Amino acid sequence: MVNEALGLFFPDEVERIRQNKCPLCSKDIIVTSFTSELSLKEFHISGMCQECQDDIFNKGDDILNEGEIFIEGGEVYGYR
Ligand SMILES: [Zn+2]
User: Fold this and answer.
1) Ion ligand 1, residues whose Cβ is below 5 A away
2) SS (H, E, C) 8-77
3) DSSP label at 62?
């Protein structure tokens, strides 16, 4: 499900999601390729494929390694 209002701001991205393609890499989405329920949820929110989600969340880990906060199970635990 895609928020229709998004189409006003990101018409290309929304069009890709409509065509079952990832808005970031334009690859076809294979729903069975999602490795977890969380990934599937994220797909319904952003339309991103598993690969792009991995990419973004792995980068997030790098930032957290350098940073001052860490997140586990969706909870922010503050300073290390
Ligand atoms: Zn992708």
Assistant:
1) 22, 24-25, 49, 52
2) HHCHHHHHHHHCCECCCCCCECCHHHCCCHHHHHHHHHHCCCHHHHHHHHHHHHHHHHHCCEEEECCEEE
3) H
H/E stretch holding 69: strand 69-72
Tracing tokens 């001052």 back to the chain, one arrives at 68
pTM of the model: 0.59
- Res 50: pLDDT: 94
User: What distance in angstroms lies between residue 41's CA and the mean position of ligand 1's atoms?
Assistant: 15
Residue numbers of the chain with a pLDDT score lower than 50: 64-66, 80
